[in-house]
Amino acid sequence: MCGSSKVTEFREQLENPRLDPLPAAKELYQILIGPIAKDLEGAQAQTLMWSLDGVLRYIPIAALHDGRGYLVERYRNVEFTPASQARLKDVPGEQWRGLGLGVSKEHEGFSALKGVPDELHGIIRDERDKTSRGVVAGTVELDEDFTEESFRASLRNGYGLVHVASHFRFRPGNEMDSFLLLGDGQHLTLDRIRSLPNVFGGVRLLTLSACDTAVGGVMAGGKEVDGFAVLAQRQGAKAVMATLWPVADQSTQIFMRRFYELRESFPRLSKAESLQRAQMELLATGRQASLTDGGQEQVVGSKPGADRDYSHPYYWAPFILIGNWR
Fold first, then answer.
1. Are residues 72 and 109 in the same domain?
2. How far apart are CA 257 and CA 253, in angstroms?
3. Per residue in 73-112, pLDDT tens?
4. In-domain check, residue 267
5. pTM flag (> 0.85)
6. 20 to 30 A from 207, CA-CA: which of 16, 139, 252, 262?
7. Same domain, yes or no, for 163 and 103?
8. Which residues constitute the domain of residue 103?
9. What is the count of structural domains for the chain?
10. 27 domain residue, yes or no
11. How far apart are CA 57 and CA 81, in angstroms?
């Protein structure tokens, strides 16, 4: 059995880059993966599809550790839900057009997300701006330009990629009080999204970046982790990439840009493999940092101000892919 106390302890260690998550990561690996590890090796599995329930939703499977390495170093990990099953076999087209939506300013009850403009412009090459240097051609709607009206109008233009960098608040059992913060300070509730049939139709990947689904004082059974994601899939999105806790601006910019660079440079690369490679590149930065630090080994995450050491799972593990992994 995997009790909620073990999950809570692991999450606390994952969300603080100064703490060592390895003991808990190894213990949970033995509980969850150990009994089937030999079967996975025998099957030569590369991509693992996870159907998680309850408190298990809080665990980034990629951050479990088998004693030799993190699970991300061996497998591509994808979650699926009943809402995504009908689209798991869909093969996406090779080229994406992207819609970047974001909130960078402070609003009542929500802190500013100062890294969002750089994140969006590093990903989306705005077709209206000749100086734009993003990876994916498309459109950026930031702050006051990101309203419900503009959101719905833009989605009708058939963007295959929709990248949202904003706050998200979930209230278990209450879709009126569960919402995405829009750039004009308004709240797009889950109840409102549910009333817009197939609003994400044609979206191959909906990325929810910087969305706050962190565990508070009391767990909600993990429902806030996939609340928006499941609804988005029911409303047409083939896949959703979400975050399990509030993420760091600088590392998120690096991670997101690299994820899309991989997918755009190698169109036959699956979303799951692009995610795995981007996560492993952040994981590898700690090893690079140790080599440039006089050859002295360092405890992961223990060096304050190490700008390029993103090896702690805090930086790379919160990103999860739900739905169509292709």
1. no
2. 6
3. 999 999 988 877 777 777 766 678 999 999 999 999 999 9
4. no
5. yes
6. 16
7. yes
8. 98-246
9. 2
10. yes
11. 11
**Within a domain: residue 106?**
yes
Residue 205 pLDDT greater than 70, yes or no: yes
Q: How far apart are CA 232 and CA 239, in angstroms?
A: 9
- Crossing angle of helices 271-291/249-265, nearest 10°? 130
Q: Are residues 70 and 191 in the same domain?
A: no
Q: Is residue 265 part of a domain?
A: no
Q: Are residues 120 and 223 in the same domain?
A: yes
